[in-house]
Structures are given as C-alpha cells and as structure tokens.
Amino acid sequence: MDVRAQSKRAGWRMGAHMGIGLFTLFSALPFYVMLITAFKRESDLYDPQNNPFWFTEPPTMANLDLLFGSTKFLTWLLNSFLVGALVVVITLVLVIPAAYSLARLAGRWGETLGIGIFLTYLVPPTLLFLPFAKVMAFLELQNSLWALVVAYPTFTVPFCTWLMLGFFKAIPRDIEEQAMVDGYGRLGAFVYAVLPLAVPGILTVVVFAFTLSTSEFIYALAFVQNSVQKTVSIGVPSELVRGDVFRWGSLLAGALIASIPVSILYTLFIDQFVAGLTALAK
Questions:
Q1: pLDDT above 90 (res 86)
Q2: pLDDT-derived band of residue 103, with 50, 70 and 90 as boundaries?
Q3: In 3D, which of 222, 187, 204 has the Cα closest to residue 265?
Q4: What's this model's pTM, rounded to 2 decimal places?
Q5: Which residues are paired to 246 by β-bridges?
Q6: What pLDDT score was predicted for residue 225?
Q7: Please, what's the b/e burial string for 59-92 (b: 16 or more CB within 10 A of its CB; e: otherwise)?
Q8: What does the pLDDT read at residue 278?
Q9: Residue 130 and residue 84: Cα distance in Å, rounded?
Q10: Cα 43 from Cα 248, distance rounded (Å)
Q11: pLDDT at 61
Q12: How far is CA 130 from the centre of its chain?
C-alpha cells in the first residue's frame, strides 16, 4: 500500500474519531449541566458574570437537602418504577400475541392493520386526556396511580405492537414450521421456537415502554394531584416551581437522579435495542 493511501486512511480515521468525540461531548453536555447545577449555590447560578460550566463559589449540598428533605422525591421515584413496571407487564401481555397474530395469522391484512394500530400512537395526549378524564371518573381512579397504569398502555401498546410486528416478520417461517413437524402445536412452536428468537425485540419493547411511561407528563398532570401519588415526571416540576420561583438546583438534581436508572437500562440492553430497531427497518 502506498504512502498516499495510508495517509488518506489515517485522515478518514482521525476525522471519524473527531466526529465521535464531538458527538459524545454533545450527548454528555446535558448530564454535565445537570450535575454541576445540582451543586451550585443560587448566588452563583443567577449571576450572569459567572462561568455557567464551572463553580465560581464553593459547591453546596443545599439543593439535595431541599430535594430529599422538603419533598417526597423518594416516593415519586418509587411510584415511577411501580407504574413503569406494571405498564411494561401489561404491554408485553397484550403486544406479543397481537403482533404475532398480525405477522403470521392475519395474512396480507396484517401489515395494514399494524400500520393502522401504529397511527393511533400519533394522536397527541393533549387531545385524549379530556375523554380519558371521563373514563377515569367512571372507574373511580381519579387522583390515583392506577389511573396512570390504565392510561399509559393506550400509547405503549400501539407503538410496541408495530415494533414487534416487524420483528416477528423477520423470523423465518421455516423455523416454526419445522417445530410443528417435530410435533409441537401452533402454541408450542410459538413458545419454544419463536419467542427465544424474539428476545431482542421483547427487550426493545421493555426499554421503550418503561421509558415512555416514566417520562410521561400530560396524563400524570391531569389525573394525579395528591403529592404522595405523583411520579417523578410531575412531582419534580410541580413541587419545585412556585409561581415564578424556580428551584433550578433541586430541579436538575431530581432530573439527573431520575435519569440514571433509564441510562443504565439503555446501557445494559443497547445491543438488543439496536438489533430490534435494525430488524424493524428491514
């Protein structure tokens, strides 16, 4: 290989590394701002002459003391995880058989029906929360976490059904047909031959459903008012903003702490998440 080709390849490699480095810095910037703001004094934060990306005054724990000592932040975290876990279970129970039926049993109408189901996901919650309020009143679930457990699957199930539909279609039919030749029925072939191959798609659904349900704001604001029943997405902004007074240090500390479990979830399942989205795009 001549010197010119080696120099060109080294230039491309350096450009790629610089691009990845810039993208990494851009992606990490929100977390850095949340982290440094969580320990800044208000006088340091509100002075426009100070460096917003570093401490001009000594760090303080006052923002964390306010968050943990004067609010029900730990209760909101627990509520968020409880609602997220229940929504994930409900979503998986409904989505897996629905997506498999559309992919294998609905014939040429399956994909059209899947797209129709996905389109319901695009209806904004700002339009749906009014009729949902009547449903929650009928079910006597106002001001309760169970209102969120009932409401959230209405947007996780359509999206995740469309997601799993593409994943099941990517699994060759020959595998389950061979299982049926070996003596399994349709259900047995689905459980023992198809589901193990669909694990990346199922994990993608888990990540999506949990993330969407823990970050949702409109339904949580409309259906839950009691402080002990709130989730993080509504508890932090509603309890730490009083009129025109914003507790920015505590607000960003709460946002940072709440984002850590979701970040860990994405990190643990990033390979399966990418595999699921790649299968969907084929």
A1: yes
A2: confident
A3: 204
A4: 0.83
A5: 241
A6: 87
A7: ebeebbebbbeebbbebbbebbeebbbbbbebbb
A8: 65
A9: 23
A10: 12
A11: 92
A12: 24
* Residue 223 near residue 143, CB atoms below 8 Å: yes
- Ordered by start, the domain boundaries in the chain are 3-46, 61-281
Least confident piece of the model among 24-38, 110-124, 141-155: 110-124
Q: Contact, 198 vs 164, CB < 8 A?
A: yes
**Cα–Cα distance between 168 and 97 in angstroms, integer?**
11
**Cα–Cα distance list, 234 to 80, 101, 210, 224 (Å):** 10, 37, 16, 9
Fold designation for 61-281: MetI-like fold (1.10.3720)
Q: For residues 34 and 171, what is the distance between their CA atoms, to the nearest angstrom?
A: 42
| Per-residue pLDDT tens over the stretch 173-217 | 888 888 888 888 888 888 888 888 888 888 888 888 998 888 888
Q: For residues 255 and 252, what is the distance between their CA atoms, to the nearest angstrom?
A: 5
Q: What is the 3-class SS of the chain, one letter each residue?
A: CCHHHHHHHHHHHHHHHHHHHHHHHHHHHHHHHHHHHHCCCHHHHHCCCCCCCCCCCCCCCHHHHHHHHCCCHHHHHHHHHHHHHHHHHHHHHHHHHHHHHHHHHCCCHHHHHHHHHHHHHCCCHHHHHHHHHHHHHHCCCCCCHHHHHHHCHHHHHHHHHHHHHHHHHHCCHHHHHHHHHCCCCHHHHHHHHHHHHHHHHHHHHHHHHHHHHHHCCHHHHHHCCCHHHCCHHHHHHHHCEECCEECHHHHHHHHHHHHHHHHHHHHHCHHHHHHHHHHHHC
Closest CA to 89 of 155, 140, 156, 141: 156
Q: Half-sphere exposure of 149 toward its Cβ, with a 13 Å CA cutoff?
A: 15
